[in-house]
């Protein structure tokens, strides 16, 4: 709760960049539709930025608004547009979506010959970075109370208890150096190698990469004792430590 | 600077108002100037427990809305010196409380009082969050049964995440467990959770254990805080809790099943 009823926070969102090179609304819609059909889940309601900085000829406001409409109709959400700040159209303030600052990345100059060869009508550039660096783990020292939820993109290490009604999730492993009474879900992005370790197994639910087990079943294997949970041939194994 | 203590629980009917009245009175008995605020707007109860219901003219919401001054709304307790009550409004709801309004009232009270006890409403919504937002310490009132313990755990999570201290990254709220309506006989027979069961689940320092007692109901109906009844176990247990809150060491009492009397044993107990 704050005085104003809200909080302003910075946030980084992965978006799709639609870089227009030559403007032809029909071609753009046609090819974009094709791309979307290949991976419909990826594009469904995906935030998208329209970039006209690479366009050789200028574009009229009506044309640009039509493009925004058409892209929106394909199920994408246009969150902004970009253009070369040196060639800012006169109508820039009239566009219905916000103008975003130009990308800081300078294009690498390639020889004109090659440039000519590779100029398809539409280039859909996804700015999803392949992250190869392992995510750092999150360390929690306080108890996780009922109703609280903690998520780590790497391992999750809790030096306290996890109460009943609390939920801890991690892309990697989960370690609980206290009683695990709530729900623990490791490998939530599908890592079948992820494991859960706890000092006292009293969980409501444990899950690894989507395979789960409830407390009723756990009580027959290990209860109120240290244990690890791992996935062996698609089935959960609870092993005393 | 005044210390703001919220008496909270999540669950209703566990003894928040009884405990607020008893602890507030106990602190005042020790010579600290104390005010108890009823945050349960719309379900005003504290005035009944304190026996001052006929003296309520203006209330907390009137003060927030500047319809009355603090001194007009504060009710001086007739029995205990240094004790005041700020009653809730019965005709309004929790939306009448604003963070700015509550902050202003607390700042004004802090100029005069040593301790401000906030009697929280049940639940985890706006009213309860308002009561705990400015707290320096929290007394979590819990009954020895699973649903009350679960709700207390939930409110502890809210104390850690939605209080002013948490939002500003300051030293966290001091948390104390007050176990009420404890019945040693029913614990022994396994019908109730034991002190150690509850301590194990909530993992916060124990302020006191108040035994289930007829005296509590009697005191409530008479409008006298039970702590003033030094004949009753509940009254003595509350006094112990206040002593511990003030940093004194007190052994736990009234945790054992009452020993059968000589006659009963003689008759084959």
Keywords:
heterodimer, A: 241 residues, alpha/beta, Alpha-Beta Plaits, Pectate Lyase C-like, six-stranded mixed beta sheet, 15 strands, B: 269 residues, Rossmann fold, eight-stranded mixed beta sheet
Characterization of the model:
The complex is a heterodimer of chains A (241) and B (269). Chain A is of the alpha/beta class and 241 residues long. Chain A folds into 2 domains: 123 residues, 2-Layer Sandwich (Alpha-Beta Plaits); 104 residues, 3 Solenoid (Pectate Lyase C-like), CATH 2.160.20.70. In chain A, a hairpin with a 2-residue loop joins β14 and β15. The radius of gyration of chain A is 25 Å and the shape is elongated. Chain A starts with 15 loop residues before the first strand and ends with a strand. By secondary structure, chain B is an alpha/beta fold. Chain B has a single domain, classed as Rossmann fold (3-Layer(aba) Sandwich), CATH 3.40.50.300. Chain B has 13 helices and 8 strands. Chain B has an 8-stranded mixed beta sheet with strand order 3-4-2-5-1-6-7-8, with helices on both faces. In chain B, α1 packs across α12. The chains are: A alpha/beta (241), B alpha/beta (269). At the A-B interface, loops of A face α7 of B. Chain A: Pfam families: MinC_C (PF03775), MinC_N (PF05209). Chain A: Interacts with MinD and FtsZ. Chain A: It comes from Marinomonas rhizomae. Chain A: This is Probable septum site-determining protein MinC. Chain A: Belongs to the MinC family.
């Amino acid at each position: 709760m704050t005085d104003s009823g809200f909080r302003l926070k910075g946030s980084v969102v992965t978006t799709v960049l639609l870089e227009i090179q030559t403007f032809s609304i029909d071609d753009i819609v046609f090819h974009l539709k094709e791309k979307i059909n290949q991976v419909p889940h990826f594009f469904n309601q995906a935030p998208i930025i329209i970039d006209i900085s690479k366009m050789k000829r200028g574009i009229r406001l009506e044309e640009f608004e039509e493009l925004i409409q058409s892209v929106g109709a394909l199920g994408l959400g246009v969150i902004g547009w970009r253009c070369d700040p040196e060639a800012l159209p006169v109508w820039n303030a009239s566009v219905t979506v916000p103008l975003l600052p130009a990308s800081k990345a300078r294009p690498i100059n390639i020889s004109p010959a090659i440039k000519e060869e590779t100029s398809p009508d539409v280039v859909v550039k996804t700015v999803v970075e392949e992250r190869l660096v392992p995510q750092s783990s999150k360390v929690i020292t306080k108890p996780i109370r009922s109703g609280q939820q903690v998520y780590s993109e790497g391992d999750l290490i809790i030096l306290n208890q996890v109460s009943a009604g609390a939920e801890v999730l991690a892309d990697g492993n989960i370690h609980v150096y206290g009683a695990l009474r709530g729900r623990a879900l490791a490998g939530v992005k599908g890592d079948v190698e992820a494991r859960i370790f706890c000092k006292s197994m009293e969980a409501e639910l444990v899950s690894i990469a989507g395979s789960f087990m409830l407390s009723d079943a756990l009580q027959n294997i290990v209860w109120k004792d240290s244990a690890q949970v791992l996935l062996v041939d698609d089935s959960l194994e609870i092993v005393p430590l | 600077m005044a210390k703001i203590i919220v008496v909270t629980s999540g669950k209703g009917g566990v003894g928040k108002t009884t405990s607020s009245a008893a602890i507030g009175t106990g602190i005042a008995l020790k010579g600290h100037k104390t005010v108890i605020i009823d945050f349960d707007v719309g379900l005003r109860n504290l005035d009944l427990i304190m026996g001052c219901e006929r003296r309520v003219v203006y209330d907390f919401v009137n003060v927030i809305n500047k319809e009355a001054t603090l001194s007009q709304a504060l009710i001086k307790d007739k029995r205990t010196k240094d004790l005041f009550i700020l009653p809730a409004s019965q005709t309004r709801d929790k939306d009448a409380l604003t963070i700015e309004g509550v902050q202003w009232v607390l700042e004004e009270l802090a100029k005069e009082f040593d301790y401000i006890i906030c009697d929280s409403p049940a639940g985890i919504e706006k009213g309860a969050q308002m009561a705990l937002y400015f707290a320096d310490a929290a007394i979590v009132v819990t009954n020895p049964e699973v649903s009350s313990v679960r709700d207390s755990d939930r409110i502890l999570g809210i104390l850690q995440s939605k209080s002013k201290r948490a939002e500003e990254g300051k030293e966290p709220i001091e948390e104390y467990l007050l176990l009420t309506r404890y019945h040693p006989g029913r614990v022994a027979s396994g019908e109730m959770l034991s002190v150690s069961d509850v301590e194990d689940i909530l993992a916060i320092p124990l302020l006191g254990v108040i035994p289930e007692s007829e005296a509590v109901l009697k005191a409530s109906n008479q409008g006298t805080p039970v702590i003033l009844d030094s004949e009753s176990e509940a009254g003595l247990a509350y006094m112990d809790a206040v002593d511990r809150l003030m940093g004194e060491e007190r052994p736990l009492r009234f945790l054992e099943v009452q020993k059968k009397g000589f006659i009963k044993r003689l008759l084959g107990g």
